[in-house]
Automatic annotation (TrEMBL):
The gene is fads6. GO terms for biological process: lipid metabolic process. GO terms for cellular component: membrane. PANTHER family: FATTY ACID DESATURASE 2, FATTY ACID DESATURASE 6. CDD domains: Membrane-FADS-like. The chain crosses the membrane at residues 69-86, 150-173, 179-200, 212-231. This is Fatty acid desaturase 6. It comes from the Eukaryota. Keywords: Membrane, Transmembrane, Transmembrane helix. InterPro entries: Fatty_acid_desaturase (IPR012171).
């Protein structure tokens, strides 16, 4: 019918317009990259990551202090962990830390699996193939990664995110796929990251109890989980008030 033909032409025309806009956008981005210096492309982000890593020894030592003021400075550990896991993981997933394929793969595994306790393959796929597949379509806005519609808003936004340090590795083991090599690597790398931090809390910070060291580790990892979920969810189009969350 004429109406269906008209709709088809409009759809095709709309697709061509979007493709044209994306080509123009890609051209502008590539031009910006070519005109940028190494410091602008990688230097600033690498410096921020380096500062986070450099602050780790001081943070672990301050957590072992008996003085409330010095102990409170141990909050740097939570800040450093947030910088390393959020910024480091994001840069690594885009292979933005190195032009080398080998080093790019290394940093992806290190930041996503060792530092963030998640599967590297699942993390890259979720961010590049799913998240940006949505954001790169003009007019759709952003996409929220974590949707748990069965939770009330107050729980979703202020309580449930605190469990992310426990939930993340469990989800990672379920997202490793069927390749035995990837499963073993993910389990070993996630275990290495968790064990290393726990060991540092006991042997550097001086926690005498395994339970207190574990609680401190989870608290540091959850410190910015509530702001993270707020940034994540408020980038999306919120549903009607009849829905509890998106």
């Amino acid at each position: 019918s004429e109406s269906s033909e008209l709709m088809k032409k409009r759809t095709e025309q709309s697709k061509v317009e979007r493709d044209t806009l994306m080509m123009e956008l890609n051209g502008m981005v590539q031009k910006m990259i070519n005109e940028s210096s190494w410091w602008e492309r990688r230097g600033v982000d690498c410096s921020i990551l380096m500062a986070a890593f450099v602050s780790l020894p001081t943070a672990f030592l301050q957590l072992g202090s008996s003085q409330p003021l010095w102990f409170s400075l141990g909050v740097m550990l939570g800040v450093a962990h947030a910088v390393i896991t959020v910024k480091g993981t994001h840069l690594a997933s885009h292979r933005a830390l190195s032009e080398s394929q080998v080093w790019g793969k290394f940093w992806t595994t290190f930041f996503i699996e060792v530092c963030s306790s998640f599967s590297a393959e699942a993390g890259v796929h979720g961010h590049i193939k799913m998240h940006h597949a949505h954001t790169n379509v003009i007019g759709l806005g952003d996409s929220s990664i974590w949707k748990v519609s069965l939770l009330l808003r107050i729980i979703y936004l202020f309580i449930a995110p605190l469990a992310l340090p426990v939930i993340t590795p469990l989800v990672a083991f379920g997202e490793t796929g069927r390749a035995l090599v990837l499963v073993i690597r993910t389990v070993l790398m996630v275990g290495l990251g968790l064990y290393s931090q726990l060991w540092l809390h006991i042997n550097v910070s001086g926690f005498r109890s395994m339970h207190s060291a574990l609680f401190c580790m989870l608290a540091c990892r959850a410190m910015f989980s509530v702001p993270y979920i707020h940034v994540n969810i408020f980038q999306v189009r919120m549903p009607s008030l009849q829905n509890k969350t998106r």
